[in-house]
Each structure stands twice: as structure tokens, then as C-alpha cells.
Amino acid sequence: MNDRSDETDGSDAENARDDGTNGVHIETAAIHAGQEPDGATGALMTPIYANSTYEQDGPGDHRGYEYSRTGNPTRTDLEANLAALEGGAFGRAFSSGMGSINTVLNLLEAGDHVVTGDDVYGGTHRIFTQVYEEYDLSFDFVDTTDHGAVRDAVRDDTALVWVETPTNPLMRVNDIGALADIAHEHGALCAVDNTFATPYLQRPLERGADIVSHSLTKYLGGHSDVVGGALVTDDAELDERLGFYQNSVGATPSPFDCFLVLRGTKTLPVRMDRHCENASELARWLEGHDAVDRVYYPGLESHPQHDLAADQMDGFGGMLSFEVDGTLSQASDVVSNTEVFTLAESLGGVESLIEQPAAMTHAAIPREERVAAGLSDGLVRVSVGVEHVDDMKADLDAAFDDAL
Ligand SMILES: *Cc1c(COP(=O)(O)O)cnc(C)c1O
Fold it and tell me: Which parts of this chain are annotated as the region Disordered (predicted)?
């Protein structure tokens, strides 16, 4: 664990900023960053500090902690760990990915304008249009792979460019460096939702992003057993403002949830290696399959931003989508008939999941609009887990045979 008493002076964080993950490889940082054996007992693992308040030695004279919404030792260790993974100086944990996204929006003022992708995560689209438009923020949704369109959308009052990459479900890859440059030319912040790639594969701060956002629910937790969010930045002033809203709004995670995510991040590198290997193998197999019209995976040469992905990412991730040669109901039959792949929303756990965007995650979009956006009736999205890839192939083969 960190030296709890210097929680607020950022000394660990400054080491992280100077040499990335404290000068060690990410595999080592994943296991050790933010986590020292407990000074009192030698316990290797960060304890779950199930605790709301802390004894003070005199009024205001405390040992780094006063109240657990403001700070909790289990959370401190998680925040230091996440910051190190992203090569950033400061981490903040939240009770969900939406909690972290909300906190970035708290930085803005009425009248501010935001530019983001037209295929941004559904919950992000909802908080933008159904919550913050009511607070007099305005949003433009554009194709963020088209930098001309982004330049046209950015205005003098643009305060934030919100980037996701790869995107859901078509796995478009956005150029973080180029989009951060456009944001900065206009004095706007650039925030990147790094949930799909994870810091093992992509570190947006290195490419000029100001803030990285995560749903810890996905790969960082990694076991489909916890909901959480995080923000990482290198900018002390920005971190202080994020910390103010974290404490004031109060969407903070429980110590138990922090413990679960810390347990997850230790194995992030080994899990991601297998996710990438399996997804890459499955993508190639699907591309050659008679039942499949098209595969969307950044690791395929047929992917429109394959070269950018190869440059920006250290691996192509575990998410892919494909179009089956069939109707909406045939695609529904495919996703209903698998056994290795569980029919469920969400992603990033060790188990493989399958879903049909047109009937599930993206069902709220009117059909015409949905199809125009490239989300066909036959589109199937999979979160490729860490089971044996041959079992995945056999499972899909059987489902195709039954349904098509
Ligand atoms: C899941 C997800 C979120 C929201 O996170 P929650 O933990 O569900 O609140 C945000 N962005 C992306 C890309 C996601 O996949």
C-alpha cells in the first residue's frame, strides 16, 4: 500500500509521471503499482477498508483520511494502480463508468459545446442529450474518423472533444493524437474513453489526451462481477477539479468494489494477450466463413483503419462484430443458440458474450437510421473471452447451422 499519510501530496503520482509506470513494464505495474505489503501486518493484498470515518488525533489532525467518500485506503491503492497503468500521474475511481463520464461533464459550464463521435457508447449519448442538454450544454455528433468533419464541428465555445476508440459495435478506430490536436487548437479538452482498448493496448495520455475515462466494469475488472469507473490525468489542476466533483457529487466506489478491480488489474496483461489472440484467430476464421458477410475487427487488413490501429494500439483487442448472411430473426436465432458464448450485453470479462445490436444494445435507434449508420439486421457483436478458441468456432458453427 501507499504511505497513507502522503495521500494528498501526490508523491507516488509524481514518480509515475516521470517515468511512465514507475520505470517498470506494465505487467509489473499491474501487480505492484499502488500496492505495498501492509506496514502493520505484512499482508500482501490491499485490505478492504470497510470503514466510513477515521479517528483524528486532534481536530483536523488526521492521518490522511477523514471520511470515506472523500478518501478510502482501498480506493487510494486502486487509483494509484490505474494511474500507473495509463502512465498518468493522477487516478480517480467512481462507482460506474457513467459516474466517471458525469464527472468530466461537471468540468463544463452552461453554454459550453462538446464534439463527439456519432457512434459513441449509448449511455454516453444518453447523458449528453437527455441530462446535460437540460443544463444548457450542446453536443455535436460527427464521424470522428473524418477530421474535416471534426474541424467543421469545433467552435470557439467548444470545451470538450470526447473520443472513443475502438468504437461500438463497428470497431472504428479514431486517431487520438489528431483529435487531441484539433481540440487543443480551440482551447478545448480532449477526453478519451479507453474502455475497449485498456491501457495494456493503448495509452491516450501519451498521444496528447488530457483525460482518460474507463468503465472498470469491463476489462479492468475483467470478471463480470463489479461495476466501476475511473479517470486518469497528468494535469494536477485538472485532477484537483475532478477530485472536487468526485467528493461533491459522491459517485464513489465501495472499498469492496475497489478490491475487486485491484484483483482484476493484476491479470490484465495476461488476460488481454489471450483476448487478443482469440479474437484475432476468430476474426480470420469468420472472415472465411460462408455464413458471414463481413467482419469488423481492427486486426484484419480489411479494416478501414487497420494501419492506424497497428500504430496506435499494442494489440487489436477482444471485441469484434460480424454480419451474418440472414434476416433480423435469423441473427436472433444465431445469438440465442450459442453455448460457449452467453447471450448478454456488456463485455470484457473472461467469458465470451454474444449480442445482437439491432435487437439489444442499439434497439432504441429507429431501423432506417440504424441501417444507415451501418448497423445491419444481421450484425452480431461478440466479446471474445479467454476460453479455447476451437470451442468458440465449434459453438458458432453449430449456431449458424441451426439458424441459417
Ligand atoms: C460500459 C461502458 C461505459 C459505461 O460504463 P458503466 O460501468 O456501465 O457505467 C462507458 N463507455 C463504454 C465504452 C462502455 O463500454
Answer: 1-22, 51-71
At 364, is the pLDDT very low, low, confident or very high (cuts 50, 70, 90)? Answer: confident
Distance of CA 100 from the midpoint of ligand 1 (Å)? 9
- Relative to the CA of 101, which ligand 1 atom is closest? 10
| 161 ligand 1 Cβ < 6 A | no
In angstroms, what is the span from residue 246 Cα to ligand 1's centroid?
17
By alpha-carbon position, which residue is closest to atom 8 of ligand 1? 97
Q: Does domain 17-265 have CATH number 3.40.640.10?
A: yes
**Interval 113-159: pLDDT, tens:** 999 999 999 999 999 999 999 999 999 999 999 999 999 999 999 99
What is the C-alpha separation between 365 and 357, in angstroms, rounded?
10
> Is residue 121 in contact with ligand 1, taking CB distance under 6 Å?
yes
How far is the centre of ligand 1, averaged over its atoms, from the C-alpha of 288 (Å)? 31
Report DSSP letters for 310-373, one per residue: HHH-SS--SEEEEEESS-HHHHHHHHHS-SSSEE-S---SSS-EEE-TTTTTTTTS-HHHHHHT
Whether 269-403 and 17-265 are alike in CATH topology: the answer is: no
| Domain-wise residue ranges, the chain | 17-265, 269-403
CATH number of 269-403: 3.90.1150.10
